[in-house]
């Protein structure tokens, strides 16, 4: 009785997996490849060619419409109060670390090397200025045409301390910083109509009706006591002639030097910089029109 049962089991045993796989890939009895005939595969291939061709054509058409007819190519679509910045450019101070702290030792310039490189790169890339080890700086030829068009003799303030010879003041314990206003398309600074409109913290003697006033100060009382003196170059701020930014060829951003003189060593000093014009809206929560940074000099 056992032998017939064993024979019956052997007769119904399924073929091994590799044989089933081989038959699935190509079945000579039904002339199919992976369960489909050549005619079926041709229909599927034709369907997907047509489907993806239509999909690609629609995507290309929508890109063309938005890129060349809806979104302007030479200017942002949202400007002024409709933009993310609400029509108010931000303020930039360079150099600055990722955490906002500037720390270095006067007797060990290795710590200050990254900051010096940041200033050098900022001058070259943003303002077209190349500074040399002998203390001289010159503006790039293509940028010079733009500055000449503004009828300005110089793009940047010349000062004997804020140059590469002194490592922009870092090697003598009087570091220099670049302060500039971000480029916002078609933003025009407006002068104050009267001195009474100027915020009380901004020194009136430094106000110039054709310039953006820049003012930096210690954030709290201990910071004011430890900050020392700040020198501005030029004292009037950033000239209006460099605005508005309209995507001009070889456009040059103007800036102001600030130099910290007499800052108390071994103490972290918090400094806040602001710019002052009539149409400068206050957005403290978004930190748009001012910038805070920290300085520690050993």
Structural features, described:
It is a single chain. By secondary structure, the protein is an alpha+beta fold. The chain is elongated, with a radius of gyration of 34 Å. The strands form 3 sheets. A 5-stranded mixed sheet has the order 2-11-10-6-8. It has a 4-stranded antiparallel sheet with strand order 1-5-9-7. The protein has a two-stranded antiparallel ribbon with strand order 3-4. It has 2 domains: 52 residues; 217 residues, Immunoglobulin-like (Sandwich), CATH 2.60.40. The relative contact order is 0.14. The termini are far apart. β3 and β4 form a beta hairpin. The protein contains 6 helices and 11 strands.
A few lines on this structure:
The chain has helices at about 1-10, 15-25, 40-70, 115-125, 140-150, 220-225; strands at about 90-95, 100-105, 130, 135-140, 175-180, 210-220, 230-235, 240, 255-260, 270-275, 290-295.
Which structural class best describes the helix and strand composition? alpha+beta
The amount of helix comes to 25-40%
End-to-end separation in angstroms reads 100 Å
CATH homolog superfamily of the largest domain: Na, k-atpase alpha subunit
Spatial extent as radius of gyration: 34 Å
Per DSSP, the total helix count is 6
Main pleated sheet: 5 strands, mixed
Query: Overall pLDDT, averaged?
Result: 82
Strand coverage percent: 15-25%
The CATH topology of the largest domain turns out to be Immunoglobulin-like
Known CATH architecture of the largest domain = Sandwich
Organism: Octopus sinensis
Family: Belongs to the X(+)/potassium ATPases subunit beta family.
Membrane topology: Single-pass type II membrane protein
Subcellular location: Membrane
């Amino acid at each position: 009785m056992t032998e017939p049962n064993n024979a019956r089991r052997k007769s119904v045993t399924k073929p091994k997996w590799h044989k089933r796989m081989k038959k699935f890939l190509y079945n000579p009895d039904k002339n199919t490849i992976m369960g489909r005939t050549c005619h079926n595969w041709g229909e599927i291939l034709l369907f997907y060619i047509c489907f993806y061709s239509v999909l690609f054509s629609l995507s290309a058409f929508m890109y063309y419409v938005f890129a060349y007819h809806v979104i302007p190519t030479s200017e942002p679509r949202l400007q002024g109060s409709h933009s993310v910045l609400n029509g108010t450019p931000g303020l930039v101070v360079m150099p600055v670390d990722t955490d906002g702290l500037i720390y270095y030792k006067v007797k060990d310039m290795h710590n200050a090397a990254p900051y010096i490189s940041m200033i050098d790169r900022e001058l070259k890339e943003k303002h077209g200025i190349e500074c040399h080890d002998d203390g001289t700086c010159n503006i790039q030829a293509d940028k010079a045409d733009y500055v000449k068009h503004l009828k300005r003799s110089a793009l940047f303030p010349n000062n004997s301390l804020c140059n590469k010879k002194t490592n922009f003041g870092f090697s003598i314990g009087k570091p220099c910083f670049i302060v500039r206003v971000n480029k916002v398309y078609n933003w025009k600074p407006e002068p104050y109509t009267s001195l009474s409109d100027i915020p009380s913290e901004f020194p009136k003697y430094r106000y110039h009706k054709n310039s953006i006033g820049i003012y930096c100060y210690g954030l709290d009382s201990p910071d004011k006591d430890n900050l020392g003196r700040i020198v501005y170059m030029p004292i009037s701020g950033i000239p209006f002639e460099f605005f508005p930014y309209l995507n001009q060829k070889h456009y040059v951003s103007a800036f102001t030097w600030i130099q910290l003189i007499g800052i108390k060593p071994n103490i972290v000093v918090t400094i806040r910089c602001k710019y002052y014009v009539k149409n400068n809206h206050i957005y403290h929560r978004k930190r748009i029109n001012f910038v805070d940074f920290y300085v520690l000099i050993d």
